[in-house]
Design brief:
binds magnesium ion, eight-stranded mixed beta barrel, 31 helices, alpha/beta, five-stranded antiparallel beta sheet, binds ligand C2E
Length: 788
């Protein structure tokens, strides 16, 4: 009896002590000073974990009631047992109350979860009490065998419930505590000593240790999860903040590449509601596009690579938009790759502006064709991607375009270029790239060509585009082009070389006359490069003081007096030395530089002539290009006025070509000059078209027989006849005749015999500087006796 009382006491104090310590240690998890959110989360997780086991707990408890019935059947009064069985089954069935409450309730409502938690704890105690009462009542009535069976059933029950409710230490403790207490009481009442219940207490102690450990693990896990959630919430909050304050928006995908947690801003930008976007695959929103932006980003996301300001194209409400996307893959310590998170920004405006700029940078604004920069890019790309022999270019240039600009004005010139641009575009279609390189220079890029013949035939086709006149307003302009072609490989190993050589071929074509085409040849390089070099050096030559005038006297044979000096231009370039006028004047004419240079010559000649005796004239050569220029007359008048030179002392020397080309404008200028009193001499007569007809149509003051006829006087009798015919006709028409290039006394004698009135040549005096002329004029320019 004493032992039994000691057993009861020991039992009470042990259970109280152990459970009290355990609860003290873990109670904070159910209340205490933890952050409310953590506490709530622990409750939620705990209830969620336990409620899942309720159906199994229910079934096993009922099975145990059945087993218990088998163990005690026949040994105890059946009425007592049925009563106990029903009460126990009811205590077990009551588990359905928290189970249903959980199912129906809102897991995020802390009050609901706490209520369920209390119910579970209470029911754990109730079940343990039911089993304990059963043991206390029935165990003393059983024999040792059946007691052992009941003990096993109770032990199994305890183990199952303790482990099943491990996440819920209070319920486990209540259950274990009540069952240990009642079980011990049952054992004591069944006649066992306090010593004999020690194994049960040891078992309970061990259960407590396990519960403590399990509860600790559960808490740790919950705290970790909570910390993770908190961190995510913080990130989400700062990201929301970021979204609210910037034009960017955030997006993220899960590990399978589907968008998740779609923000309102993202859904607005994509023009899709959040429900549609959530779960949509990345590659579905960024479907393959023409520019391959999306192909690139989808591949990188698939390979879990980061994106930095990558471009993406999106259809938003049927409208093409462009986004800039930056993103990085997200990795979790536990789960590994867990998706991609990034920011996006609409850059449609910026991109379109960029493209517009790029287009402007690549387009010739006048014709809409591509410009030099773009053409060079395309040509360079062609050399990088295909055999050089498949590449060709044809360069085009208009004949006399400068004249149109100068005479009809720039708007007409521009309209002509636009018209030609349109013809070239229509001809090229999608097959060729055509560029305007600048001025009146156009170039066509030919790819996949098959040898030089094909390039030449394209050049011929291009020249045919000039067949129809260009109609600009009231003007119908008939204009020719020249074409220069070059073939990759043979005529240039890279873009620059090919362009340069096509240019040289074009120069050669232009030198041959109007409407000609030439394929590049190696020999063109030297001559044409020299012309280019001259053209470069000639720019600004006048300002740099590199130009001078020499004068060559023209003598009257009957008196032997100097009647005029012909101004002959000289150029000494610092780099190239003295350059032959025949060479640099044609370059100046081609480049248009002859206009400013010619103005300078006129001014200089007028100034020099003003200091000579008044009966000596000055002859100035003018080029056809100058005559076509509308400003010639006014500049000439200005210079005469400025230096006080009478117009009658000036003679302009023109060549026959001018008369052939003479449009109404040139003829008008010539007549204006004549009206002014300026003399017009026909230079180099006999070398051009040798047509005597226009001699009748124009009142020349002089004709100058070309030196080639004079030169042949000694050797070729036909020359004497030609000169005689010219002199006779000139006399009949009232023109003076000057023989140029007289070098020998024999030529002089012949010319005298042929009644030629004036002579000029090395025999009398070479061209010399204005200073040297002083000597000559002082001597009144008399021919030496020996020569006369
Ligand atoms: P041009 O007007 O027929 O000038 C006569 C050329 O014959 C000059 O050549 C002169 O030096 C050269 N000459 C003079 N006497 C003799 C001679 O006895 N024998 C030979 N073989 N030649 C002689 P230059 O000075 O070399 O000028 C060549 C051409 O350049 C000129 O031919 C003229 O058409 C042109 N030129 C010269 N100065 C000017 C200019 O200021 N403006 C323009 N537009 N053309 C000019
Ligand atoms: Mg001359
Ligand atoms: Mg001449």
């Amino acid at each position: 009896m004493l032992f039994r009382q000691a057993g009861y006491f020991a039992l009470f104090s042990f259970v109280k002590n152990m459970t009290g310590r355990l609860i003290a240690r873990h109670a904070p998890a159910q209340g205490g000073g933890r952050a409310p959110r953590l506490r709530a989360e622990i409750t939620q997780r705990r209830v969620a974990a336990v409620q899942r086991l309720i159906p199994a707990t229910l079934i096993f408890n009922l099975v145990h009631v059945g087993l218990f019935a088998l163990a005690v059947w026949g040994a105890v009064p059946s009425g007592h047992f049925v009563l106990w069985g029903c009460a126990t089954a009811l205590a077990v069935a009551l588990l359905l109350v928290p189970w249903r409450a959980y199912r129906r309730g809102n897991p995020s409502r802390v009050e609901d979860m706490e209520r369920i938690q209390r119910q579970i704890t209470l029911l754990a105690g109730l079940r343990a009490l039911a089993w304990g009462v059963g043991a206390i009542v029935f165990l003393p009535q059983l024999g040792p065998d059946r007691q052992l069976l009941v003990g096993l059933i109770a032990g199994g029950m305890m183990c199952a419930e303790v482990f099943g409710f491990a996440a819920f230490p209070l319920a486990t403790l209540v259950y274990g505590g009540v069952l240990t207490l009642t079980g011990s009481m049952a054992l004591l009442s069944a006649g066992m000593t306090a010593f004999e219940i020690v194994p049960l207490l040891v078992f309970f102690a061990y259960v407590l240790v396990i519960v403590r450990h399990q509860a600790g693990l559960f808490l740790e896990e919950t705290r970790d999860a909570h910390a993770r959630d908190e961190a995510q919430r913080d990130v989400a909050m700062s990201l929301n903040d970021f979204e609210a304050n910037s034009s960017d928006w955030l997006w993220q995908t899960d590990a399978s590449g589907r968008f998740c947690a779609v923000s309102p801003r993202f859904s607005k930008a994509a023009g899709l509601d959040a429900e549609t976007l959530n779960g949509m695959h990345f590659s579905e929103l960024f479907a393959p596009d023409a520019e391959f932006f999306n192909t690139v980003i989808c591949e990188r996301v698939r390979l879990r690579e980061p994106l930095s300001d990558a471009r993406a194209s999106v259809q938003v409400g049927g409208v093409q938009r462009y986004w800039s996307i930056s993103a990085s893959p997200q990795w979790d310590r536990v789960d590994g790759f867990c998706g991609v998170r990034g920011v996006a920004q609409d850059i449609t405006g910026k991109l379109l502006a960029e493209r517009r700029l790029q287009q402007l940078a690549h387009t010739d604004q006048l014709t809409g064709l591509i410009n030099r920069t773009r053409f060079l890019e395309l040509l360079t790309e062609a050399f990088a991607t295909r055999p050089a022999s498949e590449i060709g270019i044809v360069s085009l240039d208009l004949t006399g375009f400068k004249l149109i600009n100068d005479t009809l004005g720039h708007p007409v010139g521009d309209a002509l270029l636009r018209d030609l641009g349109a013809r070239l575009r229509a001809w090229a279609g999608d097959a060729f790239d055509v560029a305007r390189l600048g001025g009146d220079e156009f170039t066509v890029l030919l790819l996949d060509i098959n040898g030089p013949a094909e390039v030449e035939s394209v050049a011929a086709e291009l020249l045919e585009l000039f067949d129809a006149p260009f109609v600009v307003g009231t003007h119908s302009l008939v204009i020719d082009g020249s074409a220069g072609a070059a073939l990759g490989g043979a005529h240039g190993a890279d873009a620059d070389a090919l362009m340069r050589n096509a240019d040289l071929a074009l120069y050669a074509a232009k030198a041959e006359g109007r409407g000609r085409k030439r394929m590049f040849e190696a020999e063109m390089c030297a001559g044409l490069l020299r012309r280019k070099q001259l053209e470069c050096a000639l720019h600004g030559a006048e300002e740099r003081g590199e130009l001078h005038l020499y004068y060559q006297p023209i003598f009257e044979l009957s008196t032997g007096k100097v009647v005029a000096y012909e101004a002959l231009l000289r150029w000494t370039s610092p780099e190239l030395g003295p350059v032959d006028p025949e060479e640099f004047i044609s370059v100046a004419e081609e480049s248009g530089l002859i206009v400013p240079i010619g103005d300078w010559v006129l001014a200089q000649a007028a100034r020099d002539a003003a200091s000579w005796p008044s009966d000596i004239q000055v002859c100035v050569n003018v080029s056809p290009v100058q005559l076509r220029n509308t400003t010639l007359l006014s500049k000439l008048v200005q210079n005469l006025d400025r230096y006080g030179l009478l117009p009658s002392r000036l003679t302009l020397e023109i060549t026959e070509g001018v008369l052939l080309e003479a449009g109404s404008h040139v003829a008008g200028t010539l007549h204006d000059l004549l009206n002014l009193g300026v003399g017009i001499a026909l230079d180099d007569f006999g070398t051009g078209y040798s047509s005597l007809s226009y001699l009748r149509s124009f009142p020349f003051s002089k004709i100058k027989i070309d030196e080639s006829f004079v030169e042949g006087l000694d050797s070729n009798p036909a020359n004497a006849q030609i000169i005689r015919a010219i002199v006779d006709m000139a006399n009949a028409l009232g023109f003076d005749v000057v023989a140029e290039g007289v070098e020998t006394p024999m030529q002089l004698a012949e010319l005298k015999a042929l009644n030629c009135k004036y002579v000029q040549g090395y025999l009398f005096a070479p061209p010399q500087s204005a200073n040297d002329l002083i000597v000559l004029t002082d001597r009144r320019g008399k021919l030496k006796a020996s020569q006369a």
